[in-house]
Inverse folding.
């Protein structure tokens, strides 16, 4: 489990790089792109390259997951879910070509199990 979602390391990625990750912001997607999501933005750096990633957590799925896990739907919980998903992305290389990544219900559930 992450000790902090604000600053952490992710990796190694498939190319052997470890990324320094910094939390930038969390906001509802409806306010920036008319989407029913909670968007969490991170900045990644491997010392040479810098990437921005926005992890979109669909609000209806968050509500269902919150009810199922009996966890309150809070900003820190959403940020931890997004950070865990980002770690998995880095480790597998999946969706790393994308700036905006929307979690599936299965991905959210897996992240919630890790965050618990």
């Amino acid at each position: 489990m992450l000790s902090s979602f604000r600053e952490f390391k992710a990796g190694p990625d498939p190319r052997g790089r470890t990324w320094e990750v910094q939390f930038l912001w969390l906001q509802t997607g409806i306010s920036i792109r008319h989407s029913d999501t909670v968007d969490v933005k991170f900045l990644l750096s491997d010392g040479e390259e810098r990437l921005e990633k926005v992890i979109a957590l669909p609000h209806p799925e968050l509500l269902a997951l919150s009810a199922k896990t009996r966890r309150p739907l809070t900003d820190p919980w959403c940020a931890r879910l997004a950070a865990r998903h980002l770690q998995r992305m880095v480790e597998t290389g999946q969706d790393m070509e994308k700036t905006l990544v929307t979690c599936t219900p299965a991905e959210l559930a897996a992240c919630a199990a890790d965050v618990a």
About this structure: Residues 7-115 form one domain. The chain has one domain: 7-115.
